[in-house]
Description:
Blueprint: H1 8-20, E1 36-38, E2 41-43, H2 45-51, H3 60-83, H4 101-113, H5 121-130, E3 140-149, H6 155-174, H7 179-186, E4 197-201, H8 208-216, E5 221-222, E6 227-229, E7 232-242, H9 249-278, E8 282-283, E9 287-289, E10 292-294
Amino acid sequence: xxxxxxxxxxxxxxxxxxxxxxxxxxxxxxxxxxxxxxxxxxxxxxxxxxxxxxxxxxxxxxxxxxxxxxxxxxxxxxxxxxxxxxxxxxxxxxxxxxxxxxxxxxxxxxxxxxxxxxxxxxxxxxxxxxxxxxxxxxxxxxxxxxxxxxxxxxxxxxxxxxxxxxxxxxxxxxxxxxxxxxxxxxxxxxxxxxxxxxxxxxxxxxxxxxxxxxxxxxxxxxxxxxxxxxxxxxxxxxxxxxxxxxxxxxxxxxxxxxxxxxxxxxxxxxxxxxxxxxxxxxxxxxxxxxxxxxxx
Length: 296
């Protein structure tokens, strides 16, 4: 696999390079693949086939093209490291896994050639102010429900579940305190053992239709109509709602700085690779270069 396992920076470089690389101008058929080379050095088809396992795609041609791009980028970086007489001692991660020599060379090359400015407080503040939704905690809902199960394709079952849900809502309209008893008697959800209580729910912890219904409700309210999801019909009661809150800038500044610096570094890696590609004789695969898309 063409990946620098022990260096987060080089792993990020691989990701940046993958985003940077363009698909080939035309499909390369697996029955008659186009030979790939970098500065006269052929990349064996066996290496490309082996690398394909790390680049799943919708079809073999796409996977092969992505694998060939990854190997070309690796060759460009290794050639650049050798031209600069770069040597590096392989690092070992916390699990005792050691980099390969080539991986260490690429890491050292990128550390030497790709530099990015530190994200200062002003830059972090601009990002924070521009993306408030990224730094807002999820709302919390405490809810109960009674599930009348029926699959989406079971029309008769859905009809019966809807009628049962309406009947339950009618009973609750006159006596809301019966919710737990009705959940125990009729709900198809394991929460029936707890009177239908679902505990605390946050964004993404339930299906979108259910979450949307909760967002429209007020604490103490029982939804006036059953909520339909792929699981069936739900009678829903909202007991408590804690709105999401924007985290203070000071609490997220370090996280923002790390993200901005990582994004800047990834762009720098992509630019460095494009310069290397523009100066190289690459055949059989397309990469973006500093002068535009390149394919031979």
